[in-house]
Write a structure and sequence with these properties.
This protein has 345 residues and is α/β, with parallel strands linked by helices. It has helices spanning 26-38, 56-60, 75-86, 98-104, 106-111, 121-128, 130-139, 150-154, 181-187, 242-253, 287-292, 297-305, 341-344; strands spanning 16-20, 46-50, 63-66, 88-93, 115-116, 162-166, 176-178, 194-198, 203-211, 217-229, 232-238, 260-268, 274-280, 322-324. The chain folds into 3 domains: 16-118, Rossmann fold (3-Layer(aba) Sandwich), CATH 3.40.50; 123-130 and 201-324, D-amino Acid Aminotransferase, Chain A, domain 1; 146-198, Dna Ligase, domain 1, CATH 3.30.1490.20.
Length: 345
């Protein structure tokens, strides 16, 4: 990976990783830990940050630190302190609001040796807004749901059903099909920053695209959603669909400042042509499926950070490899000290 003179190069036996806003992402945390071990980075650790100690990934990490909200004025200062204290070589953001913050703070973080796996402002803008995403997909020639004028739909000039969602939403919160003018009139004012789209039906896919730290797209892994829970995939299966893979790689290559793992969402209709409607410029919740299927994103990122060229196989993943999630738990002794006294009284 090309590095500026100010970037500190980690040793060949140690590369610490920081997962920010780690939350429930224990499977991804363990995947990074496994990758460290597989590469012989025996002195390495995976560090987590969060708002609360009552976070499963916080408790499962090798070390963990409390930080303020990403919107706090001292958030970056605190992050730099954590990176210096734990000699972090790679930062992996896990929630959308952190992406532009880490991109803007790249120089400060790199100065202490911590490379953010975060895209630049153009990719962040596409990731942040579904309206901007629709315009991006349309501009590069990929099929995407048409944005519908609210007033035209209320006047009866658009065919129903349509699809309503928050422009900056996540986890499918606030999304719904709209079947009539009356439904639109009811839900429009009740949706935060509403966006009305053409309703596209078919099979929904999430596509993980690995973009190297030098900005080069290397592989795409389509995952078919079989079942979701709270907006996140609970059952999924990899599908080596060449049309979906090619389109996702085209989209990634059109982003001038993409880095790390990008998560595209698309719907494949009866004609087999994917219609793209969203980008999350970070590890998606279902990324452990792609990793387990052979697309070892954590290992590749670690290798690049060490200045090596990862050997990415072709094909990069196993076709029809399934993930069936179940509830697991992280247990914490003497947890009373982590809870407000009012809860325990």
């Amino acid at each position: 990976m090309p590095q500026s003179a100010s970037v500190i190069t980690p040793s060949s036996s140690s590369l610490n990783v920081l997962l920010t806003s780690a939350g429930r992402r224990v499977a991804l945390l363990r995947a990074f830990r496994d990758a460290q071990r597989a590469l012989g980075l025996t002195g390495s650790k995976v560090v987590a940050t969060d708002l609360t100690r009552l976070s499963s990934a916080f408790q499962d990490a090798d070390a963990a630190e409390l930080v303020p909200r990403v919107t706090a004025v001292d958030y970056v200062d605190r992050l730099v302190e954590v990176c210096e204290r734990h000699q972090i070589g790679l930062i992996v953001p896990l929630i959308d609001p952190e992406l532009p913050v880490l991109a803007a703070a790249r120089a400060r973080l790199e100065a202490v040796g911590a490379i953010p796996v975060a895209s630049g402002p153009e990719t962040a803008a596409v990731s942040d807004s579904k309206r901007v995403a629709a315009a991006f997909f349309d501009r590069i020639g990929l099929r995407t749901p048409r944005v519908i004028d609210h007033g035209s739909a209320l006047a009866g000039h658009e065919p129903f059903p349509l699809f309503l969602k928050p422009e900056n939403g996540s986890s499918s919160i606030g999304t719904r099909p709209i079947h009539s003018v009356e439904e639109l009139a009811h839900w429009w004012p009740r949706t935060q920053k509403p966006l009305l789209l053409e309703l596209v039906t078919g099979v929904e896919y999430t596509v993980d695209v690995y973009v190297g730290l030098d900005g080069t797209p290397r592989c795409a892994v389509p995952r078919r959603r079989l079942e979701t829970r709270a907006g996140e995939v609970s059952k999924g299966i990899t599908v080596a669909d060449e049309r979906v893979m090619s389109a996702a790689m085209t989209a990634a290559a059109a982003l001038p400042d993409a880095r790390g793992v990008l998560t595209f969402q698309c719907m494949v209709g009866p004609d087999g042509e994917p219609s793209f409607f969203e980008l999350n410029a970070r590890f998606g919740g279902g990324a452990p499926l792609s990793i387990a299927a052979g697309a070892d994103f954590p290992r590749w990122l670690l290798e690049e950070r060490l200045g090596r060229v990862p050997a990415i196989p072709s094909p990069a993943f196993k076709h029809h490899f399934a993930m069936l999630r179940f509830d697991d738990a992280v247990f914490v002794e003497n947890a009373g000290a982590l809870l407000p006294e009012a809860i325990l009284s």
